[in-house]
Amino acid sequence: MNKKCLLLIICAVLLAAALPAFPAQGKEKTIVSNASTQLADNAAQMAAGGTEEQITLSRRNNRYRLTDGDVLDLDFPFTPDFNQTITVLPDGYVSLRGIGGMHVGGDTIPEVRRSLQRVYAKILRNPVITVTLKDFEKPYFIVGGQVRRPGKFDLRGDTTVMEAVDIAGGFTDNAKHSQILLYRRVSNGWVEVRKLDLRDMLRGKNLNEDPHLRAGDMLFVPKSAVSKVRQFIPSATTGVNYNPILH
């Protein structure tokens, strides 16, 4: 009986000592998992030819970041004279009542609110500010190259690559149907390039493989065959008039 009691006491002591360690172990696993994901993304981008200075690791669950043309409502509950509606200018700045210019381009709403509280604290005591995103850039896609109406289009509902080409007026007579290039942002500063064969899709062979567009996607329809395309490229090199054959 004494041995059983002693064994139970030892087990209880060991269990009590182990319990505080469980959260720490879970946290370490999370950190290791996140680090592994980042290293994998980094390796993929490095393989694409980017340098360590150029590469920005992918972020999960990103908050919306302001861009030019976005409109914000600023509400000061205790000092309503400072209530205002501001628009982000092409250089990323906004003009604030009583303050002047402040750069907000690329910031999230919580970041803007903190910045506003900091700058308005110079003229107001403990300012309370509510920031509401009133208007923002709508989801869009871009079609360039050998289509009849190249340009930027609103992404309204579920749209596939073939439907996007139709929205852009369809192919020209010189279009290379079998080598359509789809550019998709995969991280801040980097875009993934996929080569699609719409000729087979149009013949009814692979209709189930017609990709669905995401906001910000770009399609390029070349005039001639593209022999080689890098899987990842800097996003700054893409645009409506971008020609991958010349790069």
How would you describe this protein?
There is one protein chain. The strands form 3 sheets. A 6-stranded mixed β-sheet has the order 7-6-10-8-9-11, with helices on one face. A 3-stranded antiparallel β-sheet has the order 2-1-5, covered by helices on one side. 17% of the residues are buried. By secondary structure, the protein is of the alpha+beta class. The longest helix is centred in the first third of the chain and has 27 residues. It contains 5 helices and 11 strands, in the order H-H-E-E-E-E-H-E-E-E-H-E-E-H-E-E.
Write the layout of secondary structure elements.
Layout: H1 2-18, H2 21-47, E1 71-75, E2 84-87, E3 93-96, E4 100-103, H3 109-120, E5 130-135, E6 140-145, E7 151-154, H4 161-167, E8 180-187, E9 190-196, H5 198-202, E10 218-221, E11 232-234
Parallel strand pairs: 6-10
Antiparallel strand pairs: 1-2, 1-5, 3-4, 6-7, 8-9, 8-10, 9-11
Topology order in helix (H) and strand (E) letters: HHEEEEHEEEHEEHEE
The percentage of residues in β strands lies in 15-25%
Adjacency order of strands in the biggest sheet: 7-6-10-8-9-11
Overall pLDDT, averaged? Answer: 75
Question: N- to C-terminal separation?
Answer: 83 Å
Structural class: alpha+beta
Query: How many helices?
Result: 5
Q: Which descriptor suits the 3D outline?
A: elongated
* Helical fraction: 25-40%
Number of strands: 11
Q: Sheet with the most strands?
A: 6 strands, mixed
Q: Low-confidence parts lasting 5 or more residues at pLDDT below 50?
A: 18-60
Radius of gyration: 27 Å
